Every structure is written in C-alpha cells, then in structure tokens.
Amino acid sequence: MFETALREWRNQRGMSQMALAMAAEVSPRHLSFLESARARPSSAMVLRLAEALDLPLRERNGLLVAAGFAPHYGDNDWLSPQMTELRQAAQLLLRAHGPYPAIVLDAAFDILEANGAAMALIGVEALPAVRLNLADLVFAPGDVRRSIVNWAEVAAYMMHRLREGVRRHGPGAPVARVLMRVRRHEGVEGLSLRPEGALGQVLLPLEFMVGGQATRWFTTVTSFGAPQDALAEEITIEQFHPA
C-alpha cells in the first residue's frame, strides 16, 4: 500500500513528516493525509515525494505501483535489446582499460561484464551463465579471498558499500540479501569499519597475490549520467589501476 511504503521510506531516510513536507514543497497536513490514506496522491505527487526522499529509479517505480500507477521509468534486463547502446558503451570502456582489470556491476554487485584482465584476476576464463557476485568472491572461502593480502581492510570497505546499498535501495532490495549472505562467512563479524591499517590513507589499495607475485591496485567507479532506466542508473564500472 502506498501509505505504508511512503511512511517506511520516510522513516528509513530519518525524516520527520515536517522535513519531508518541506523537501517536497507540500503542506504537512496533506502529507499526513497521504500517510493515513485519507487522501490519494497523483502520479506527479508520488514522483515529487520520491525525489524528496532521494529514491533510486527502481524504488520510484515501486512507489508509483503501490499508489496504483504504471511505472514511469524503464526497467530492462542487461541483455535486452533496449540496453544494447549502454552495453556497447560499457564494453568499450572495458576494452579501453586493458591491460588492467575492469568489471561492470549492478546494484547487488553481480558481475555483468568483465574484461580479460579482470577474469584472470578472479581466476576464470569466461564469465559463467550463473552470474558471479563480487561480494561473494571477496567474503566466501575460496581462491579470491585467499589471494587478497589485506583482506580485512578490503572486506570492511565492501561491507560499507553493501550497507550503503541497503540504505539507498531499501531492506527488500537484492543488495540486502547479499549483505545478509556475506555476514554468515567466517571472520566477518569481527570486521572493523575502520581497519587500523587503513587509518591515514587517502586511497585503500587492494593487495592481490597471484602466482606468488603481489600486486597493488586502487579502483575508480564510473556510472552513466542522466539515466531513464532503473538498471542503467544502477550500473557501475569498476576499473583497477596499478598502485
């Protein structure tokens, strides 16, 4: 129901009714009526409130549907024809970043694309049909986790990114399930949010051991501007640079 969803998002954002009313430029009385189902919103009002709540496009669509309206933004699959242009742009960036690793991630940290250097780093020759998840690779026991020399620092940073994803997309989003999943792995419970070794650093390097040789990387994250599709907004390209 719209009123329940609106109230939950407002609480998650830590906003009072007065604060949200001011941000959305509506009267507190009208907002109170919307949250108590004594008034029904227009689609324009739903989008105004969603913007004031800083909701991602996927969650704005969800709020519209809860109010009885059709989604306003596209929500296409990565391999759909509608995403061809974005997919080609991402692949161009991956190729241009070679010989260094680069990967394309969705909001839940599933790996959608990777260049050859990235696949070599995670130990696969090609991406499998069932998508790999970057958080699972970092946290689950296996070759990737064992290869990360400064695992505690990297894992703490990844936990921060996962928590921020849940804050942004909500507790029902796929990223919340990923966070719940990785929390079960050994060594996660004792992670510090600010590992001692990272204090005073401007960039957190990723130290990786491959074939007995240590490499150091820092990463940059690229996203696409002015997206009108939920997935397009969520896509990030993570590029590894030699430190």
Automatic annotation (TrEMBL):
<keyword id="KW-0238">DNA-binding</keyword>
<protein>
    <submittedName>
        <fullName>DNA-binding protein</fullName>
    </submittedName>
</protein>
<dbReference type="InterPro" id="IPR010982">
    <property type="entry name" value="Lambda_DNA-bd_dom_sf"/>
</dbReference>
<dbReference type="GO" id="GO:0003677">
    <property type="term" value="F:DNA binding"/>
</dbReference>
<dbReference type="Pfam" id="PF01381">
    <property type="entry name" value="HTH_3"/>
</dbReference>
<dbReference type="InterPro" id="IPR041413">
    <property type="entry name" value="MLTR_LBD"/>
</dbReference>
<dbReference type="Pfam" id="PF17765">
    <property type="entry name" value="MLTR_LBD"/>
</dbReference>
<feature type="domain" description="HTH cro/C1-type">
    <location>
        <begin position="6"/>
        <end position="60"/>
    </location>
</feature>
<dbReference type="InterPro" id="IPR001387">
    <property type="entry name" value="Cro/C1-type_HTH"/>
</dbReference>
